[in-house]
Amino acid sequence: MNPIEITVPRLQRENIHAITLWPFIFYRKGFQDDIALRCHEFFHWRQAARWGVIPWYLTYLALQLFYFRRAADQHPLEAPAYAEQREVLRLLANEESIGEHLATLRVSTKA
Ligand SMILES: [Zn+2]
User: pTM for this one?
Assistant: First the structure.
């Protein structure tokens, strides 16, 4: 199973470029082809699928209570997704292959 990816004109806040609301991933218009961002969201989506969607969101929201004042990438469920996103950006900047990341996360590549 794969996420249903949808591009929308705007999300709830200007600084939010994408959000995973299982089974969907919503992208703000202009960010839908950002492959590093898509890896970040696919990371969340696959993790939620593994954990079970409800337990994942309950854990996410519970942790949010403790981490909402900190940088977004400090949240324990965000840290690995941001790490994934940064690594893909690093590989792209070095003109190295991101194929392994796309395969692991099973990120669909549009024709
Ligand atoms: Zn995230």
Answer: 0.94
The model's pLDDT over 50-96, given as tens digits with 9 standing for 90+, comes to 999 999 999 999 999 999 899 989 999 999 999 999 999 999 999 99
Contact, 27 vs 17, CB < 8 A? yes
Q: Report how far apart, in Å, the C-alpha atoms of 10 and of each of 32, 37, 65, 73, 106 are.
A: 12, 16, 25, 22, 26
CA of 111 relative to ligand 1 center, distance in Å? 25
Task: Kindly list the domain boundaries of the chain, sorted by start residue.
Answer: 34-105
Three-state SS at 20: strand
Strand-pairing partners, residue 4, are 24
- Interval between CA 41 and ligand 1 midpoint (Å): 6
What CA dihedral angle connects 87, 36, 48 and 12, to 10 degrees?
130
- Helix (H) or strand (E) run with residue 52 in it: none
Residues constituting the chain:
111
- Distance between Cα 62 and ligand 1 center (Å): 15
